[in-house]
Structure prediction request, 255 residues.
Amino acid sequence: MNKKKRRAVIAGNWKMNMTPEKTTALIGELRELVKGKRGCDIVLCVPAIDIPAAVKAAKGSRIRIGAENVHFEEKGAFTGEISAEMLTSAGVEYVIVGHSERRQYFGETDATVNKRVKAALNAGLKVILCVGEVLEQRDLGITGEVLAMQTKIALHGVPEEQLKNLIIAYEPVWAIGTGRVATPEQADEGNGVVRKTVEELYGKKAAEALTVQYGGSMNEKNAAELLGKVNVDGGLIGGASLVASKFAAIVDAAQ
Ligand code: PGA
Prediction:
């Protein structure tokens, strides 16, 4: 497995944090800190209301802007939802799909994740697809099966030529927001299962080229060790992405 074939991507997931004013301030600070850091792509996935401020503040820098969710229909009577076209026309390039918080709290299923992945890719967005087991599944010894199933359903009907716009983030649910980070070995193993599943679906070449991130309590202290693993090509970072210096330190660790 040759890690050099893959682009490292460090992405922040702000979740329900930050106002447009705070967005402008944080990105203003961050863009100076990551200047010239060409060893990885840098993405910030922000709340919809913060998108215009984020796009403006990141303009001319290496920071790319993402959204945290997207609806699968093109338009219509879906109160509160946001379409892929709305995102692209606002300057958004990436979108998170299937985050465990969407699955846990907002009724997201593998089937709706699949619809969102396809809608976003068809609209030209780059997708960060999240998969991950809950603690009970890990304790039962079915982590591999869960990751394979979530990955297979999410990618059902996705043609190989769209994989260049896909990133998968392995996020063990028990590690998200808990401070209980997976060990580098657990992260590498989970990411490896995801890559193996993609190999089953699309072949070795596609699997080796796919960026697979780890997410779940990654921070400026543990990032280097996690990113050093062969199957860990980047990170999806929640809490530590809300502080410019911490996020920039993770970008440094990916250089
Ligand atoms: P965390 O969140 O870094 O705060 O654990 C990660 C995520 O949910 O993507």
About this structure: The pocket of 2-phosphoglycolic acid is lined by residues 13, 171, 176-177, 215-218, 236-239 (CB under 6 Å).
